[in-house]
Specification:
By secondary structure, the chain is mostly helical. Helices cover 66% and strands 3% of the residues. The longest helix has 29 residues. The relative contact order is 0.15.
Length: 204
Amino acid sequence: MIAVKILEIFALYATFGLVHTYLAKIEFKELVAKKYPKFLPYYRFSYNLYALIHFSLVYKLSPDIDIRLYDLPKPFDLIMLAIQYVALAGVVWVFYKIGFKEFLGVAQIGRDIFENYDSAILDEEAELVTDGPFKLCRHPLYFFTSLWLIARPEMMLDYFIAVVCIVMYFIIGAKYEEKKMLIRFGEKYESYIQGKPRFVPFLW
């Protein structure tokens, strides 16, 4: 029974990952721009809203596996909590650098309302950010989010499997994102990634 539940969790998260990745494809966005140009400024916000709903359903539908892997005693539990706070601060740092409104999709809607939306950029004004947290690694948002998820004082088996699925998605998604960045920024991005770790800072 436990094996079946584990497979169910993997299947649910895999479905989310596949759909989420497909909807993020440049080709799909170009199709939306061609068929529904007036919807394009609202695409990013709708995409994030859908992802939130879909992920919530995956989390809700995932079967419980009531097996505790560990429960750290003091002071190790406090150390883990401190790491989580650092990771959360890192996530905020990343959003500050990339622009949270742009990431969320609110900025695009604002530009459309004030008739300042450029459909040629599809759903977001992408800038190559190489300073701040992006000096540490190529995907600091994935790194800090993973760190926040992993640094748990108590670890249940079902939660651990979910984290494994999410981190796997980050790894696959990062490779796809880098292909898009190379297309968009070319040699500038290729120069940036030279000698820069993908996920873990200082890990060459």
